[in-house]
Amino acid sequence: MGGAAPHIIGILPARWGSTRFPGKPLHLIAGKPLVQHVWEQCRKCTRLDDLYIATDDERIFAAAESFGAKAIMTSPEHPTGTDRLAEAVRSLPQVDIIVNIQGDEPLIDPALVDELAAAMAADASLDMATAANPLDPDDPAVQDPNVVKVVTALDGRALYFSRSPLPFFRNAVEGLPVYRHKGIYAYRRTFLERFVTWPPSPLERAESLEQLRALENGASIKVLPTHDTSPGVDTPEQAAHVESILTSQLSHP
């Protein structure tokens, strides 16, 4: 007794005013704006019914339309990308599930986006889905507060996200990796609409991690292990690094 298949979209939030890298979405990498590379990767997805770029800036909006993307203008006043996402979805009443794809990951694996969409479509009890990379417990990243870790229940649902080492290995446990959280999310529309009405929660404020607001309010978040470690672009130096990867891929397809 299945109902109609859920309508699933991808949204790439792209804002101009990054403090570390203003105008980042339009930074040219191998001759194309950064956000266009992400959009082209996501066009390879098979589980998305549609794909949009949500922006607060006319320049990004115009660029998106020029390379054929559907673009949605949103307010520049949003405190977080999730609020921008929720505003964009208001103009799309047909949508059931939204995959929020970082607009600064030009090497994102389309298969991961499809996996998140499929996980949400397959289990109506999920409010959200996200991804994580397995790390060796001895990897220095485990101790780095800029690297967010996640631990899961036996069924793969998130128990906690933290900047601290997680879990703390009082005892060695064979085969138990540490998971580095990867910032890509799928949301059920009904949950996203509730989420943005809640005030920042105590643990969210302590760790400065928005996903803790979802957990503190009882959300069910599936965490998919992935080996997609595609780097994000936060600085011009990282843009140059990604350009060298893309250039080598283009010359050795």
UniProtKB/TrEMBL annotation:
Which Pfam families does the entry link to? CTP_transf_3
Localization, per the record, is: Cytoplasm
- Enzyme class, one word? transferase
Q: Which biological pathway?
A: Nucleotide-sugar biosynthesis; CMP-3-deoxy-D-manno-octulosonate biosynthesis; CMP-3-deoxy-D-manno-octulosonate from 3-deoxy-D-manno-octulosonate and CTP: step 1/1
Kindly indicate where the leader peptide sits in this chain. Answer: none
- Give the EC number: 2.7.7.38
Sorted UniProt keywords: Cytoplasm, Lipopolysaccharide biosynthesis, Nucleotidyltransferase, Transferase
Gene3D superfamilies on file: Spore Coat Polysaccharide Biosynthesis Protein SpsA, Chain A (3.90.550.10)
**InterPro entries per record:** Cytidylyl_trans, KdsB, Nucleotide-diphossugar_trans
One Gene Ontology molecular-function label: 3-deoxy-manno-octulosonate cytidylyltransferase activity
Do the record's keywords include Phosphoprotein?
Answer: no
Major site of localization recorded for this protein: cytoplasm
Reaction(s) catalysed by this chain, per the record, are: 3-deoxy-alpha-D-manno-oct-2-ulosonate + CTP = CMP-3-deoxy-beta-D-manno-octulosonate + diphosphate
Record's function text: Activates KDO (a required 8-carbon sugar) for incorporation into bacterial lipopolysaccharide in Gram-negative bacteria.
Q: What protein family does this chain belong to?
A: Belongs to the KdsB family.
**Can you say what this protein is called?**
3-deoxy-manno-octulosonate cytidylyltransferase
Source organism (scientific name): Luteolibacter arcticus
Q: Coding gene? A: kdsB
